[in-house]
Amino acid sequence: MQYSPCIDAIFFEADEVNLEKRIEYVKQAGYKIYEFWSWWDKDIKEIKKLNDELGLSISTMCTKFISLTDETKRDEYIAGLKESIEAAKYLGVKSLISQTGDDLGIDRQVQKQSLIDGLSACAPILEEAGITLLVEPLNLLVDHQGYFLSTSDETLEIMYDVNHPNIKVLFDVYHQQITEGNLCRNIEKLSPFIAHFHFADNPGRLELGTGEINYHNVIKTIKNIGYDGALGLEFFPTSSRVVKMAGVQTDYPL
Known about the structure:
The chain is 44% helix and 15% strand.
């Protein structure tokens, strides 16, 4: 396992820190991989150049934010996914994070079926490209009111229905602590489908060790399920960004 700092989260309130400096900080803090949210508002040629120079790689990034719960948006979602796949191939990225879209206020089963059908339609495209799509549940109580997918149980049902090796789950420990707690059991339950993690503490979505989540036990559970991938650091630090980025490895050894 490796920590993967999210440069969009860690530098969220630091607009003066440009893309080049952010990536250089990743290297200075001792990381080999990193991630970010949107690719379409970044200079991906500059990113590739910097990664090649610094010996870094990208663990994951987002696909276009288009609803999967609205079946009328499916063609638009797939077009955005294809664009994202091309960007991912250029940057050597093997997975893309997907939001599900908001709850449209119509029958939930109709929306869920639209989500399942949309993911199933994307599966052969992803398989051909060698890219994994990471479906992410989010909390509705604090950060993402109106979002569709939040619970581990419903996520598990969707994964079983889609049943494709290129469709997996991003388990965000911060979001799931707010939504339902019971983190270790839910990680174990979803373990066949988890292909990425996001870490932040609660409350505040701050750096690890500032809140209520016992990350020592969470990481122990992640090890026990045999996971060996990236652990995304998607927190908003309270002080020196480089110090906090580097300090996580010391506080929570893998």
